[in-house]
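Could someone model copper (II) ion with this protein?
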Amino acid sequence: MSKHFPGRAAIRRLILLWMAVPVIAGCGQDPAAIVVSEPWLKEPIPGRAVAAGFFKIENRGSGEEVLLGLECPDAAAVEMHEMFHEGDMMKMRKMEQWAIPGHGSLALAPGGGHLMFLGLRRPLKDGDTVQLTLHFKGAGDRTLSVPVKKL
Ligand SMILES: [Cu+2]
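Reply:
Sure, complex below.
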């Protein structure tokens, strides 16, 4: 009598495969999981070469995504700024990167986190549009048309 059950190894392989699928799905970043919406740039004060920008990023995936940096052909640099309290003062600091947790979001808004467009290369007015490219660690690059708005 044999102690060998022919189907067992195959069943074990199937079980292992079944368990591995969610793990694989959790590691790979699907670019479609990152949704960037409502981008806009606040019209700069006339004569000033800096402007603040905002958007929302939704991470519909289960893994963390990281915004590594941004580029705009109309600005020398685009920085990520976070607001924080220091005593009674609200201050801002430059972020090297911005993490967006799985099933989380990052919402930039006046008075809170924002983008800082530095060294603007042309005067920007309400109704203008600039191109903005976001560099994501997992999802790659995303280029948006960003309208300039006067508040
Ligand atoms: Cu700032």
